[in-house]
Amino acid sequence: MKETEKQTAKPPYGILAVLMIGAFIAFLNNTLLNIALPSIMTDLDIGPSTVQWLTTGFMLVNGVLIPATAFLIRKYSVKKLFLVAMGLFTIGTVLSGFADTFSILLGGRMLQASGSAIMMPLLMNVMLVSFPIERRGAAMGIFGLILMAAPAIGPTLSGWIVEHYDWRMLFHFVTPIAIAVFILGFFMLKDKKGKVDIRLDLFSLILSSVGFGGILYGFSSAGNKGWDSPHVYLTIIIGLISLITFIIRQTRQTEPMLNFGVFKFPMFALSSAITMVLNMAMFSGMLLIPIYVQSIRGISPMDAGLMMLPGALVMALMSPLTGKLFDKYGGRVLAIIGLGITVVTTYLFSRLALDTSYSHLVILNTVRMLGMSMVMMPVSTNGLNQLPPRFYPHGTAMNNTLNQVSGAIGTALLVTIMTNRAETHGAELAKAAMQNAGGAQLSETAMAQIGLQSTLEGINFSFFISTFIAVVSLILAFFIKRAKQAEDPLEVNKQVSQSKVAGEE
């Protein structure tokens, strides 16, 4: 059965429900851990540079495995892939919940990431195949509502659990749900897949892993080790060389592991550029707001989670609405309005003070999330809509891979900017204070105040740079056109060949 014929049939709502629950659990677990990192540092007696690997390692495994999902989706059935993904995630969750050393906890997180890496592209591909283009926006909207509910409740739930229980309870809480979803998938998913005669190119997998892994590791390490560290620039150089070799190899293969031909479709290429740039700007809020709230303002983890809740809820509730608006008006209008809001609110975040009110932070973050909710899903869906069905697995894998890479680059860039600006400003303030004090040694209170002011300056400057990054996305949004499914080049070539043969006869 052809993909287009599948789309005219009734969508497999049972399969989609199981896949969405699995993806929701994976998303929820990731947002649960962020607020618990200080508690994990204290309990396992580790520093910030070590504990950050719970996040960086998760991102690395995703970046390495996601490019291979295009091959896996074409080779294996939805049921088989889902059970493997959910099984890996469940084992990782159990292992993390009983971890008494950092190495075991990190191993558990890596297993969770390997399951999560398969889950998201699999769900996206099933949705693209199940719904026709004119209904895809609404379907993606419901998908967005369910997934955005995870970051909405995650920080608040995590804050409450960490304040009342051991951090391991975060994993124990997820474990029974993950097991239930695995059992549900085992009995509900009935799809079968005929034997597909494609083989994994091992050398391509190695090049992809070294390429994406090296780039992600290099940029993720830059915030802690500095750009002049061999660990940073050597891994980035090796990653880039491997990635270029990987791309050249893929373009020469008839059945590539990851088809870079998706970038020949202009709306997909444009949507990828917009989401990559916006991802970099978005990480300013995810990274810098918690630092400001907890380090400078001294707000508790519970209150910090509650502060982010309205914005996450707005983003979740807006998702079905933006999906319907996308089906009616297309992605351009939504993207321009949403990015306009994002640019303004990001700039306002660059004007934070030591005494900015809690309510001001809540409102500003909520409006910023409103803007972003109008951009991400509509722009991505518009780009995927232009792809012929044969390219769906490659398009979804490419989108998820680029999100990981741009996220790592954005995090490294903004941490570096914040740190350098804070150090420079701190040195200037200390020099001025010592001159005013006649060269006398500054008190601990004065030094602490300088530390707060310099950190604030670093955060504000990072938000200011993020504003210009968001402006780039806004400019690109003006070139968006409503995408129509393009003809498959392979089918066109076949038709041309058949016409020539018929003409000769």
UniProtKB/TrEMBL annotation:
Residues 15-485 form the Major facilitator superfamily (MFS) profile domain. This is EmrB/QacA subfamily drug resistance transporter. Keywords: Cell membrane, Membrane, Transmembrane, Transmembrane helix, Transport. The keyword Phosphoprotein does not apply. The chain crosses the membrane at residues 12-33, 53-73, 80-99, 111-131, 138-157, 169-188, 200-219, 231-248, 268-292, 304-321, 333-354, 461-480. It comes from the Bacteria. Pfam families: MFS_1. Its main location: membrane. The keyword Membrane applies. It is a multi-pass membrane protein. It comes from Cytobacillus purgationiresistens. Belongs to the major facilitator superfamily. EmrB family. It is found in: Cell membrane. SUPFAM superfamilies: MFS general substrate transporter (SSF103473).
